[in-house]
Write a structure and sequence with these properties.
11 strands; alpha/beta; globular; 6-stranded mixed β-sheet; 5-stranded mixed β-sheet; about 45% helix
């Protein structure tokens, strides 16, 4: 089913149904056991700094069980660890991982299109070299905060080619491993290739990174299959019809549904403005219907009571802030906007709708 072509009311119902199904699967005994088994075999935690682009879904591209990769999204994958909120969130995440006795790999990502530069990253005006340079700046910031010996926290620069969902792993000496140049038959060569590429990465981390690369090889082969090729031509183009603001959107594992903006930048209006411009362009080009779009704000909480109440206020603020920016900058688009505000129970991945006003 091509959900992009449905009326906006049906698309919104579909989104919340998708969230419900995702939460039910996440809470199932089988999924819980799969996560526990995976973490027992591969205990290194992995977080992903990535763009808001709806085509970038690392768990799907690596065949990784749902709920294991911690995502952080922003326009263009542009982050500054000096931003107060971002620094606090990352430090808290690292402390939680390390206190459990685990290592942590940050995948610091950029994205591009091999087939057409204009399908690349709008956040960097399709300048892939500038995007790569920024990922290395983030890498240096991670090293400044968590250490450059990489014994516990390792920042790994990683490209993502959106035509085939292929990972590109950057090495310590400026070399790189493009998984699009390999096949499933090369699976057994990945371990020595990774060791040569990342000699400063602890062996435990490399071993726990390998399943993602194995999964990506299999995923690339699926993408290249003749059966999916025509569908893929639609997936690689911008067709987003949602703006998601906040955190807790792991359930959106379908390409080109949403532009996801993390609440990290002190200049939050910039990413919102860019996302609204993409939605408007999609409507004008006929890639999506022009009958409306969804603005969805979500904030996760860990505990009931104060933590949940605070999440409600944060989600309401994000929703009203984004709506004000869109109405001011894109008046016609503002008239086509449907707003939904929610909080997410992080333990169960239950998305709970709340009223916009308390």
């Amino acid at each position: 089913m091509d959900i992009h072509a449905k009326p906006i009311s049906e698309r919104i119902d579909w989104v919340f149904g998708l969230a419900d199904r995702h939460g039910a699967i996440f809470r199932s005994a089988e999924a819980w056991l799969a996560r526990e088994r995976y973490m027992a075999e591969h205990p290194t935690a992995i977080a992903v700094l990535k763009c808001m682009d709806g085509r970038i879904n690392i768990p799907v591209a690596t065949n990784t069980p749902v709920g294991l990769l911690m995502p952080f999204r922003n326009l263009g994958g542009i982050f500054d660890l000096g931003w107060p909120h971002l620094g606090e969130v990352l430090a808290h995440h690292v402390q939680r991982v390390v206190s459990s006795g685990h290592h942590l790999v940050f995948l610091v990502t950029y994205h591009y299109s091999q087939g057409d530069p204009r399908r690349g990253c709008a956040g960097f005006n399709y300048d892939t070299a500038a995007a790569i340079a920024h990922t290395y700046q983030i890498r240096r910031q991670v090293e400044h905060i968590f250490g450059s010996d990489h014994g516990t926290v390792y920042p790994l620069v990683c490209g993502f080619e959106t035509d085939e969902d292929a990972l590109v792993i950057h090495g310590t000496a400026g070399d790189k491993l493009n998984l699009a140049t390999l096949s499933v038959a090369d699976r057994e060569t990945l371990e020595p290739r990774l060791a040569a590429l990342l000699p400063d990465m602890p062996a435990r981390m490399r071993n726990d990174l390998l399943p993602l690369l194995h999964g990506n090889l299999a995923h690339i082969e699926t993408v290249r299959s003749e059966i999916l090729r025509r569908e893929r031509l639609l997936d690689i183009e911008h067709r987003e019809w949602m703006i998601c603001l906040g955190r807790g959107f792991d359930f959106l594992h379908t390409p080109n549904i949403a532009l996801i903006i993390g609440p990290y930048s002190p200049n939050l209006d910039g990413p919102i403005r860019t996302a609204a411009g993409i939605i408007e362009a999609n409507m004008q080009a006929g890639r999506i219907p022009d009958d409306g779009f969804l603005l969805l704000a979500s904030v996760p909480y860990d505990e009931i009571g104060v933590d949940r109440a605070r999440a409600e206020l944060k989600s309401r603020f994000l929703s009203s802030f984004a709506a004000d920016v869109i109405r001011a900058e894109f008046p016609r688009l503002g008239e086509q906007m449907t707003m939904r505000t929610a909080v997410l129970d992080w333990r169960s991945r239950t998305l709970e709708s709340i009223d916009i006003s308390p």
